[in-house]
């Protein structure tokens, strides 16, 4: 039995169209399934929680979810799971970023992905991140759901600062919907990034790796991203070589870089060439604590709910079971 969660609004309605393509396949193959359609931000969390509470499952016989949506839809799914050892997820990407699918090298054809999910006999275990918001503000994202959580999981990445501010604006952008309809959704993030870059203010950050009491001091920084996978933001290869099985977060730090120089650095991140520039650094850690001089937006897989000035990221090795 498969339980399918569909975000019909993903990529400006593409989610509904893709589900219409795979539903005949499910019926032709006589697959037992139940489908749920999300109606608003946060609804996927509610659906997942209800399924986890009412459907009997165990590590030997996990609840099989198929998520059809973008990275944000997958992220909401994670927030609703109470026991990850009892849930296996198949993912059919229909978002504008699809960074998870990009790093997993999923096929472009959703029907082919579906057939791979249905034929998967044993889930593959992937790393998954967790962020704890230790100090939050009352400023909420324009896209926040009623499920305001101070602990969130992430499958791809978690960032604070510039990249999260771009995600926060993109989630509420009508411009994104227009570009998605003409197949240019990736330009949304680049366009908003340039706008946010101009408005970025000076904020400092203390960064603690693992259990160190001695911080790495960033007198001014643009963003810090802790990543399980290589890509975020629609194909920016911020952490080339990130391994989603090693139990370690790859960390991209954009420090005190002159704004005009960012215009040169940012495009090179599509090929993962940004570390050649002074002010862009990489680290690895199983735990990352960040304390900033002012509250900033925080994102998990592109989803933004609130601002914080103190967060702790950890990586759970092989915690996420995927039907691949």
Automatic annotation (TrEMBL):
Its cofactor is Mg(2+). Residues 1-135 form the DAGKc domain. One of its GO terms (molecular function) is kinase activity. Keywords: ATP-binding, Kinase, Lipid biosynthesis, Lipid metabolism, Nucleotide-binding, Phospholipid biosynthesis, Phospholipid metabolism, Transferase. Pfam families: DAGK_cat, YegS_C. PANTHER family: SPHINGOSINE KINASE, SPHINGOSINE KINASE RELATED PROTEIN. This is Diacylglycerol kinase family protein. It comes from Suilimivivens aceti.
């Amino acid at each position: 039995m498969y339980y399918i969660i569909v975000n019909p609004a993903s990529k400006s309605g593409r989610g509904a169209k893709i589900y219409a393509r795979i539903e005949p396949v499910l019926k032709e193959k006589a697959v037992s399934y139940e489908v749920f359609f999300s109606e608003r931000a946060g609804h996927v969390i509610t659906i997942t929680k209800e399924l986890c509470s009412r459907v009997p499952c165990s590590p030997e016989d996990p609840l099989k979810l198929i998520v059809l949506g973008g990275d944000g839809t997958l992220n909401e799914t994670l927030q609703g799971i109470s026991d990850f050892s009892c849930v296996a997820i198949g993912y059919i990407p229909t978002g504008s970023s699809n960074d998870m699918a990009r790093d997993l090298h999923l096929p472009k054809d959703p029907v082919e992905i579906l057939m791979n999910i249905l034929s998967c006999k044993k889930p593959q275990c992937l790393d998954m991140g967790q962020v704890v918001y230790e100090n939050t503000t009352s400023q909420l994202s324009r896209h926040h759901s009623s499920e305001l959580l101070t602990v969130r999981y992430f499958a791809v990445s978690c960032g604070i600062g510039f990249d999260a501010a771009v995600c926060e604006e993109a989630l509420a952008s009508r411009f994104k919907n227009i570009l998605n309809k003409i197949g240019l959704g990736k330009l949304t993030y680049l366009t908003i990034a340039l706008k946010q870059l101009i408005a970025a203010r000076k904020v400092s950050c203390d960064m603690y790796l693992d259990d160190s009491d001695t911080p790495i001091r960033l007198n001014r920084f643009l963003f810090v991203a802790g990543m399980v996978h290589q890509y975020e933001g629609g194909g920016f290869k911020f952490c080339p070589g990130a391994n989603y099985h090693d139990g370690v977060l790859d960390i991209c730090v954009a420090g005190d870089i002159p704004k005009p120089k960012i215009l040169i650095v940012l495009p090179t991140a599509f090929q993962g060439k940004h570390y050649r520039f002074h002010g862009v650094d990489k680290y690895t850690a199983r735990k990352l604590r960040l304390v900033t001089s002012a509250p900033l937006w925080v994102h998990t897989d592109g989803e933004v709910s609130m601002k914080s000035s103190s967060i702790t990221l950890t990586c759970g090795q092989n915690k996420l079971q995927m039907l691949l």
